[in-house]
Each structure stands twice: as structure tokens, then as C-alpha cells.
Amino acid sequence: MVITITSGKGGVGKSTSTANLAIGLAMQGKRVVAIDFDIGLRNLDMILGLENRIVYDVVDVMEGNCKLPQALITDKKNKDLFFLPASQSKDKNILEKSKVQALIADLKAQFDFVLIDSPAGIESGFEHAMLFADRAIVVVTPEVSSVRDSDRVIGIMDAKSQKVKDGQEMVKHILINRIKPELVEKQEMLSNEDVLKILALPLIGLVPEDPKIISATNTGEPIIYTQSPSALAFQRITKRILGEDVPFVEFKTKRGLMGALRGLFA
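C-alpha cells predicted for Septum site-determining protein MinD (266 residues):
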């Protein structure tokens, strides 16, 4: 299964979510590859702690400069998790539809899950990252700008994904990240209900703000290996991806800013 993890804007935790969900699936015994499609701005390698082991990248594979097995990096802790890095020096416009399709098909034949870390926004890199996906997880923070930009991204996926063009449904879910319950209580941040009502997609996970994520990223030790609140959240999301019925952890919230925002999403 190919799952694109995407967002409408940067800085919402998309790469962090990709890394931790890839590890979570591998910890459940699935054979997983995580691909960084953010050409020129890679950081998934740093979050996974694999930045010093990169020799070839995804562009090298698609341009025929190396074979796929040469570019795949095996995770340090889990033999079922592999990583295919983005190019740091190439332009994002170098990606070609036919080459992306061939790469995804090759990986899909070898792995249970192919997780694509999509560039934020709606440029060509994003379109290639979502084009051949079976599912999408849209990472959003409970802020007006993030939700509004994600609304645009969802619309593009509904119009341009290959699955939709083939007359099938592209399953999409919302992951609400960096939730700060105290700000929701003060009505300074959108509530979960507000976000879901605006985006009109099912929820797959709620991840609270967690200061430990910064140190985890800096040390290359993904947060899911800990028992922090965000780690437990990613573990629950992993199980939902695998089809388990896992209850959502309730945050103490009340109505947010929905009334004032209705006109922005008309």
C-alpha cells in the first residue's frame, strides 16, 4: 500500500509524522520503505538518524545512476524499515511522471507499505508525491492558515490523483498535530471538531504538542521509541492504519473559532 503523508504548509510536523509512522508499522512486523520526495529540502533522513549513511538518492534511482537496492538504507534499529532519501542538490522539477510511476510500482512490489513524505504545498513535487498513492494522510495543525491550505491540498488530490482518475476512491484521513489543549480552552486555537468540520474527512489521529520531539529530531532518535504522549499517539495511529479499532484519547476542549471562520472556507 502506498500512503502519501502531506500538508498544506510547512512546519506542521509532516516529516516527523512520516518517520514515526514508518517506524510504527515496521515495529508491527510490516516491511516498510519511507521515501523523502521533498527534493532540495530533505530532512526525513535527520529525523530517522540516517543522514550520515546516504550515498545515492531517489533522483539517482530514477535517472539510472544507481540501482534501487544501492540507494535504499536499512534502519539502524529495525531490519524491516528502509529509507530512500531525497536529493539535496537537484531541483524539484526534475521529477517525471513516468519515472515516479515506475519507482512506486517497483517499491510497491517489494514492501507492505510505501510511505511518501510529500513536499508541503501544491507545487509539482506535491503532485508527483500524491499521484500514485492509494491513501493519503493530511497533517494539519489547529490553526486557520494550516487548515485553509490543507483544504486546497485535499481538493487537488480529489481532482488529480491517478486513483480518482481511474474511477476509484482515494482514501484520505486527517491527522491533527501539535494540539495545545490549554489554547483550545481559551478559544485561541481551533478545536478538533472545528478542523474536522471544515475539512470534512475522517480523523486518523490526534497528536499533542510535545517538547521532546525537538530533542528527538536533534539526536536522530524518533519519538515513537519513547513513552511520551506524542509517541503513544503515533502508536495508536499506526494501529488504525492497520485496521484496528483504537479509541481516540479525548482532550479537554470546547467550541473554538468556528463561527468567525465560516466565511473563509465557503
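The chain has one domain: 2-265.
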